[in-house]
Write a structure and sequence with these properties.
heterodimer, A: about 300 residues, MetI-like fold, two-stranded antiparallel ribbon, 16 helices, globular, B: about 270 residues, mainly alpha, 12 helices
Amino acid sequence: MTSDEAVAVVGAQPETRQGSWWRPHLPAGLLALPMLVFLTYFFFYPAISLLFSSIQTQNSQGIIGRPFTPVHYARLIHIELYARVFWTTLRISLITSALATVLAYPVALVMVKSRPLVTRIITLIVIAPLVVSVVVRGYGWQLILANGPKGMLNWILMTLHIVEAPVSILYTEKAVVIGSLHVFFPMMVLPLASALGKIDRNLEDAARVLGAPWWKVFLRVTLPLSMPGFVAGFTLVFSLTAGSFVIPAILGGASALMLGNLIEQQIFVVYDWPFGAAIAVVLVGVVFAVNGFSMWLLEGRRLRRPS
Amino acid sequence: MDEHFSGFGAYVLYAITAAMMIFIIAPLLLVMAVSVSDSYFVTFPPQGFTLKWYIKVLQERDFLEAMRLSILLALSTTAGSLLLGVPASFALVRGNFFGMAAMKAFLLSPLIFPALVTGLALLQVLTKLGSEDARVNLLIGHVVVTSPYVIRTVVTSLQLVDENLEDAARTLGANRLWTFWRVTLPQIASGVAAGGLFAFMVSFDNYPVTMWLANSEYSPVPLVLMRQLVNVFDPSVPAMSTIIILMAMVGVMLLEKLVGLRRALAT
């Protein structure tokens, strides 16, 4: 670096600070170029191309091309088997996210408002399973829910004489909901905890000082202020559950197929690419709709209007 | 405890929290318990104690090969996503150009896109391109999924960097690269480390992208485990699972040590 440049740097006006290091502006933007090109080529372009295959025709050699046709989408709606998978997926995702909300709220509250040690332990327990393979977690639930007296749950229930004959939960929608809840629970707790942590304690104190009982403080102050975390968590859990494959494959079996499993069957077993692509597009549509709705809720500040 | 919780409400809160903690831990503990069971089938309650299933697993070629592949894949994925993600994070924090917000949304978009569909779409394009080496395909797919995590952690730590220190270094005669290496990088090291660790763990566990791009020759650990789960009924499956759980726990400890869990996961 020459002394001229040094002078130029020292003498830079405060308002040009942005450019003082990566002067001028252009090079800083260029640093994003490799990732931009990479994602365009291996993410954006494939996604668009999948969208196109979903409205094209596959010939007997497996080559996809014209004519354009909406027939694959029509199949998804009209054939009852496929339509049922669609509704099952929505139902499982909705029940899982609703359950996650109700159960995560207390955990997030305790996590945020307890002593540091308790907070730390809860955080660790909530987060740690997140990095354990979903296959392993699904397997754990398979062992717990196993039908017949060898399953852990049945063994406990029968030993305690709560039931006399083993209950069947594995390979039903219930098992898929339980497994999904386990896998995506952290995705609900973390945004909720972060929203709860941002609430000004003075607001709750003020409500209490003014004579509100704890449940009223919760309903009128804490709950409304934590809505952004709730919306973020609900969206995450819903989207992730809707797009899951492993949990329904391990715990749902044939009776609780979800869209992900249907796509896999169409591609790997039936080799029907356009139909598989169409199901994938529908799945993306559902996820985008939920995300769009939650962004609308959050950005419009519709949740924060003062009561 | 805390003055905020009192009365009946507090008991309900603590009861639900405790129940959820058990709910979270139970399946993992059960898997570990069954892995040392001295029986030929996975049963509950586990019987006796033996490490023979671990010995069996550690001699199984499929599992060892998969382990080697998964670790190499996760390492290359980490390198790849850091190489793409760190410079891109710089652009997002330091850049000041038209369409920045849109670009950030684009770079993060693989996070909200169903990974299953990302993998399927990529498979179609890679097949058309004639890219047949599963290892290369897996690497590409994993970098697509993991690089946004790097952006998230590195952008957060870059925003905290004191630019005056960089100006000072430049004034004192350091060139840009040297300034980055000696002044900026140490300040964002924890963000880069967290991003890298995330990339490693996400790649190691990834199923929805991996299932499309792997083949019979190159199958990473999650796929091999899934196959075993369907075909094998002795406690070698829980033994494999336990090894994976323990590896994950090491990852979590590292993350906690390096950056703190809450900070690393902050969105």
